Amino acid sequence: MLIKKYRGWEIPEGMVTPESIFLDRRAILQKMVGPAIAAILSMKSGFVTEAYGAKKSKTSSITENKFRVPRNFKYTTDRSVTDEFDATTYNNFYEFGSHKSIYRAAQALKTSPWTVTFDGLVEKEQTIDWDSLISRFNMEERVYRHRCVEAWSMVVPWVGFPLSELIAIAKPLSTARFIIMETVMDPSSMPGQRQHWYPWPYTEGLTIEEATNELAFIATGVYGKVLPKQMGAPVRLVVPWKYGFKSIKSIVRVNFSAKRPVSFWEKLQPKEYGFWANVNPKVDHPRWSQARERTLAGATIPTTLYNGYADYVAHLYSNLKKEKLFM
């Protein structure tokens, strides 16, 4: 008899809410609890829309349908998805300020037109219009844990595609060992970039092995909708086994290099932030413990090694024992 043993971050499929019920949950609640509660839900929905900075238009329903894609149940967690309003209004995006309530300021981000440049050690350097580029991919939804280095966390249903598929389009040479991503540079709409003491533009890097790992994900949407500006529209990286600052936002450049990069926070404070930045509850930040994390729902829970994804990524570091893998 074959018995499946679930990993620490998995739950049985029978416990997962069917996609049809998840997508129609508001209609179901309206039938169950009546007009009064339905009105409250409608008000909250409008509040979330305001947080997104979304504008209602004739094409809004078409745009939203584009991001209502099948969920890949291979990637789920034993924790509930974070409330949409909480996740979309509590954000780090230093280009718009060092506080968490940047979601209104981030609406100044200009996301159209948008291009992504592939250069460095590639067969041919190219700059591609993002709308044209995204049409090449089949998108899916993945529910990932997100663990910030500041010891707070959330669980997010990202919409996008594997980073490995983007790399395949770039066609890196065999000599490329690292991938370096760069955020858009636009001080006119991103006031934080006028602060000269930061090493703008924001850059982050991965090894090719990390970047082609199946967990590495390019997000273009969230909660079944287009990715909001404060979360890194129109395209961002998601690497859930690493601290959140590695998941770079609003990407305009993807460079391939033989040399390991020194990224944004490592340049700024190398004693506190390193290249690898893998989650580990036993390795504290110099100024605070990493043993536990505060969820956006308010609970404090234990942090897990590689943020619960050790089964997928621990092998990437088996020959790197001398590296500072957890800062």
Q: What is the CATH topology descriptor?
A: Sulfite Oxidase, Chain A, domain 2
- The name of the CATH superfamily reads Oxidoreductase, molybdopterin-binding domain
Number of helices: 10
Q: How many β-strand runs?
A: 12
Return the structural class. Answer: alpha+beta
Distance between the termini: 44 Å
Question: Which consecutive residue ranges, at least 5 long each, have pLDDT under 50?
Answer: 1-6, 11-16, 25-62
Shape: globular
Taking the sheet with the most strands, its summary is: 7 strands, mixed
Description of the structure:
Mean pLDDT is 87; it is low at 1-6, 11-16 and 25-62. Strands 3, 4, 7, 8, 9, 11 and 12 form a seven-stranded mixed beta sheet that branches. The chain has a five-stranded mixed beta sheet with strand order 2-1-10-5-6. The protein contains ten helices and twelve strands. The chain has helices at residues 19-23, 25-33, 35-52, 60-66, 84-89, 130-134, 163-170, 208-211, 264-268, 310-313, and strands at 115-120, 126-129, 140-147, 152-162, 178-183, 203-207, 217-222, 225-226, 236-238, 251-257, 292-295, 300-302. A hairpin with a 4-residue loop joins β3 (140-147) and β4 (152-162). The protein has one domain (13-317): Oxidoreductase, molybdopterin-binding domain (Sulfite Oxidase, Chain A, domain 2). With 327 residues, the protein is of the alpha+beta class.
